[in-house]
Each structure stands twice: as structure tokens, then as C-alpha cells.
Amino acid sequence: MKSNKQLETHIPLVNFIADIIGPQCEVLLHDVVDVQNSVIAVRNGYISGRQLGCPLTDFGLELLENKIYLKHNAIVNYLSRTASGEKLRSSTYFIKDENDELIGMLCVNILVSPDNQVVKDLTDKLVNVLFANNGGGNTPGQENEKVVESLHSSIENVVESAISKVLDTYDIPVERMSIEEKTAIVQKLNANGIFKIKGAITKVASTLQTSESTIYRYLSSK
């Protein structure tokens, strides 16, 4: 797997953070150029089941597609969840090149343990030091305790998570949805960057009980 040389200089930081916080902290370095094989370094990946070559999350795709990195250097202390249901306190630092273009994301995910105040205090101090210069203002994920990211190891699960997140905002089963509603869903998924993943069109078509050609038509609708 080929990665940016500038990005590779951040690999020691992955180990540094994991060594400070300990085995309850997962740290990953993502190459955003290849979103399907995004992870180029990982420590304590057993927490979410991810390893080298795993894809970017659906939330990571949203950040990339919506260019959040242009206004913020980092987003900190939002909630994420593993496939097994464990909650984590997460932070993401945006790594940019000399032209201020995003090339990678450094992600820190720490298991939430209400009984472990020491870990919580350490986590707060670490993110404040590492991610203090976040571009000003409140960053996404700081204003509520909603889980905003699902940590999956497979491309299929990343796509499924993105689709479920959008469908959950509708109080109507797919088989009763109108063309307008399905069009809105597809365009929202597109705005969230999910179609950067190969095969997402097929999965969305199946979920919405329609054809791939119809999905392309929804994407071209104004």
C-alpha cells in the first residue's frame, strides 16, 4: 500500500499517543486519498477490529466531502461506537500539505468508562494539548452527546452505516417512500461522500428497492 511520504512522518505520533494513554486507546492514521484502504498505521486496533488497509468511516467521508478541515484543524471529544456497541470518546486531527490540502486524518478513540475518572481526565488534557488550535469556535460533536461515528472494519459495513444514518431520519418504511423522498436520501448520501466507496450505488439501490440506473437518475436530479 503506497502512502504519502509527508503523511508517514506522523506514524511515530500514533505510537506516542497510544503509549501515553494505554490499551484502552485506539489510534489510527488515515490516508484520505485512498478512502477504501485508508488506514496506514494503527495501534490497539482490537478495540474496533480495524487494521491496516481498512476504509475510512462514514463520518470521515462526511468530513472529507464537506471540507470541514478548511474551517477547523481538528474536531474533538465526539462520541463514536464500535460494531459491538462499545462507546468511545473520539477526536480527529486534520493533516494538510503545504498547499493546505487535506492528505490525512489522525484519529484517537478512547473507550468510555464512567468509573475511570483518571482516564477521562487524561483524555481531556491530551486532546486539549494536541488539538488546542482547532480553528476557533465550537467544533462538530462538542455540543451534544449523540453518537456521530460508527467504527467499522469493512467497506460494506461503512456503507450500511451511512445508509442507516440517513434512513433513521425518516419515519416511514422504504416500500412506502415517494420518489421525492428517495431522491432526497440519495442526494444526502452523495453530499456525505458515500459514493466515493466502490459498490455503494449497488447497496443503496438494493436498500431503496430500486435499480442502479434509478439511483443515477436521482443523483442527476436538481
Automatic annotation (TrEMBL):
Protein name according to UniProt? YheO-like PAS domain protein
Domain named YheO-like: residues:
7-113
What's the source species for this entry?
Answer: Sporomusa termitida
Q: What highest taxon heads this organism's lineage?
A: Bacteria
Sorted keywords for this record are: Plasmid
User: What residues does the Transcriptional regulator DauR-like HTH domain cover?
Assistant: 159-219
